[in-house]
Amino acid sequence: MTLTVFILAGGESLRMRKDKGLMFGGVDRLKGLLDACGLQRVIVLCGSEERATLFEGDVWPDPFPIGGVHHLIEWAYGQVDTACLFLPCDAFLMEEGAIQNLLNQSQEGGVPLDINGRRQPLFAHIPCNFEMPKGALSVGHLLQDLPPIQTEDFACAFTNFNSAEDLQVHRQKLLALHGEHVLQQSM
């Protein structure tokens, strides 16, 4: 399967008060996981032009002021002629097995479900030639026609972290995955 992976790393991380693209090994850690899964085409969507120097490899700044992440996803998907996988940079619990599991279960694309059974569209696997609805007002609406994907034992990996409080809620899982030293640096 030919696949382009987009890492969403352009947010301002205002609620977290730290750049999420750099926490817990940041974008580089996610790239390592993707490489271990054999996914070579990885593009970091970095937001503003000034943020491009924060990341290595194929880095794309937003082409114009984006009116929401749904517009960015729609734009990025339109720039390539392959299926796409999107990963937010705050996928702090992501593991190689979770990526592989998602791809194995979503051959025709899909949106993984988290530990609470909620769709997590920022982790979407979008098939080639997918028709996105015109005038979508959110990522959920943009990808509503993709099927939900049960992620089984990996559901926790599809957790987003928006604030320091989220780090506390998942402290034990973060500690198990990253270790005490990395946890202390990121909190």
Keywords:
7 helices; Spore Coat Polysaccharide Biosynthesis Protein SpsA, Chain A; single chain; globular; alpha/beta; 187 residues; two-stranded parallel ribbon; 5-stranded mixed sheet
Structural summary, described in words:
The protein has helices at residues 26-36, 69-78, 96-105, 139-142, 164-169, 171-178, 180-186, and strands at residues 3-8, 42-47, 58-61, 83-88, 111-112, 125-126, 148-149. The protein has a single domain (3-162), classed as Spore Coat Polysaccharide Biosynthesis Protein SpsA, Chain A (Alpha-Beta Complex). It has a five-stranded mixed β-sheet with strand order 3-2-1-4-6, with helices on both faces. A two-stranded parallel sheet has the order 5-7. It contains seven helices and seven strands, in the order E-H-E-E-H-E-H-E-E-H-E-H-H-H.
